[in-house]
Design goal:
five-stranded mixed β-sheet; globular; alpha/beta
């Protein structure tokens, strides 16, 4: 079943018909739901329904699953309405923004707005405009995260979260793709690769969108099949649109060489024949290896993707080991104390305490929470 499931998810045309049982289709559906890939699986089954036998079984599973598929379309439509609302709000204040992930990836990479669902809405802004955006959103009725102040987010992470009470939607406002001190990539560098389409929409360049996906995969500790599928389709879509030698240089500068090679290894494990046919993947792998980048075998083995495994119970161990997929040892080593010791202004905001003399005590409180969070037993 897994081989059929993976064959349907990859972007290259199917070359040979195959036969499935009802159990195979049921298992594929279960995996699609589990990995948040059901809309794509449904769309691919529709496309290749005459390629899979017995066709009657495929028609049955499509008929039984149509409600789920339509539900994901309805969610995407709701998200698009909120995206337009936020963009109108920002445009009225002359603040540029870009849709990331979600519906934009569905349209851009898959050429199908209905084949990919997302649990939240991701919008990219310039870092220096985050305080203004926060004010505009909260003034328009979007609720910010009361437990994690914006100044903490700006000093530590790459986004702030808001909630839309009317439609129960979460919105993430990004100024970067990942934890800023993990990668050599600033908000300004990202915005240099934002362009205007003929329709007046702002989009990331092909190369920058790929970098965003690679960072997203690293931030999720290489465990999300959905992100890996996005990356596979992006390589296929951008095969002749990206200068892969120049892209390899950008990857190296950003500190993503090891992240990229681990990702390519995962793709090769799951879609070997398809990946071998994708020249950009081979070209990028060769370019990175020519720079001398090598991945320790224990990392490749540890992050080998298994579709049947549940990784939630080891999320903290995964996040710890994912730091060793960063390129530079000084960044890896310093990432640990930087996690435990935010800037003083962030600590003051978190504990609503502006007094300098209480900082040592509040740092101890923060470290206690941070360690508790790593072990999964304590929240701030």
């Amino acid at each position: 079943m897994k081989s059929y499931f993976l064959r349907l998810l990859q972007p290259l045309p199917l070359k040979e018909p195959f036969e499935v049982s009802r159990d195979d289709l049921s298992d594929m559906k279960a995996h699609g739901l589990r990995h948040n890939l059901f809309p794509l699986l449904y769309a691919r089954l529709v496309k290749y329904r005459h390629f899979i036998s017995p066709k009657e079984l495929v028609d049955d599973i499509l008929r039984e699953s149509k409600g789920l598929y339509l539900k994901s379309i309805a969610l995407s439509a709701q998200q698009e309405a909120i995206e337009k609302d936020i963009f109108s709000l920002l445009r009225n204040h002359d603040i540029p923004a870009v849709i990331m992930k979600g519906n934009e990836i569905a349209r851009e990479i898959y050429d199908d707005p209905n084949c990919r669902s997302s649990v939240d809405i991701d919008i990219l802004i310039r870092r220096e405009e985050a305080v203004q955006v926060d004010s505009f959103l909260t003034g328009a009725g979007y609720a910010g995260d009361s437990k994690i102040p914006l100044i903490y987010c700006l000093s530590r992470i790459h986004h702030a979260t808001y909630y839309q009470p009317r439609n129960h939607m979460y919105i993430e406002i990004h100024w970067n793709f990942g934890v800023p001190y993990f990668y050599e990539l600033t908000s300004e560098e990202i915005w240099k690769e934002v362009f205007l389409t003929d329709a007046g929409e702002r989009k990331l360049s092909s190369g920058m969108l790929l970098i965003m996906l690679l960072i997203h995969h690293h931030m999720h500790s290489f465990r999300e099949l959905k992100i890996l599928v996005d990356i596979l389709w992006a390589f296929h879509k951008y095969g002749d649109k990206v200068d892969w030698q120049l892209f390899a240089q950008k990857i190296k500068k950003a500190g993503l060489s090891k992240t990229t090679l681990i990702t390519l290894s995962q793709m090769n494990d799951l879609w070997k024949e398809s990946v071998h046919e994708m020249e950009p993947v081979q070209a990028l792998k060769q370019e990175l290896e020519n720079t001398g980048c090598r991945i320790p075998k224990f990392l490749l083995s540890y992050f080998k993707m298994d579709l049947d495994k549940e990784y939630h119970s080891r999320i903290y161990k995964d996040k710890l080991l994912a730091r060793f997929a960063l390129d530079r040892w000084p960044v890896i080593i310093l990432s640990f104390p930087r996690t435990l010791f935010p800037v003083p202004e962030a600590i003051k905001e978190v504990y609503k305490d502006k007094r300098n003399w209480t900082l040592p005590y509040n740092y101890l409180r923060f470290i206690k929470w941070r360690i508790g969070d790593w072990t999964g037993i304590r929240r701030p």
